[in-house]
Amino acid sequence: MPEEAKEVWKQVDQYFVDALIAPSERFDFALEVNRKAELPAIDVTSLQGKFLEVLVRGTSSKRILEIGTLGGYSTLWLARAIPDDGIVMTLELEPHHAQIAKQNLEAAGFADRIDLRIGPAADTLAALVKEHAAAFDFIFIDADKASYPEYLQWCLKLSRPGTLIFADNVVRDGKVIDGGHRDPNIQGVRRFTEMVSAEPRLSATALQTVAGKGYDGFIIAVVLH
User: Fold this and answer.
1) For the chain, what are the domain ranges?
2) 208 falls in which pLDDT band (50, 70, 90)?
3) What does pTM read for this prediction?
4) CATH architecture, range 3-223
5) Which of 3, 27, 37, 191 sits between 20 and 30 A of 177, alpha carbons compared?
6) Which pairing describes strands 138-141 and 87-92: parallel, antiparallel, or unpaired?
């Protein structure tokens, strides 16, 4: 992408952040903790985090499932959106990432709303299905893209009519349209998209996004029955 376009996207992001998100709301401390801990700089933006919060509040969701915790930045936005008796179950593969996330969530005062589980997400999801866990109201998938198809299969088993499933980072700088691309993340997204399209229990759409971090997008689906 041209650098001048990226600079415009960044400035527009900042304009709306300044207009719509108070400094006290942005969880900047968590991003700084993540940076110092040398976690990958792949968190959602503050506007995207607020978007997740708005979706959760707008759907009156109380049980949230997040696949991919990283340092807990998106988890913070989700946790703030639920009532005191709600829960965000967040799944993280890397123990170091999970420890940083735990610190951030405790610092924000949301630790009592979080069920942080460490290990391969597919294993945790399978265990939840086996133990007949209650359905989730909102599911945010933001982990390894190659596994999105498997995650979708488990998520459908952990959903109810009306559950929203939000899958992030599906555009991949536009590379998603290349059916022959060798990147397993791109192939994972393509297979995920095909599965969503073929699944009669889902109604879905996709939106492309541009932001200070670049060009991407998401798929959002609602479980019909």
Assistant:
1) 3-223
2) very high
3) 0.97
4) 3-Layer(aba) Sandwich (3.40)
5) 3
6) unpaired
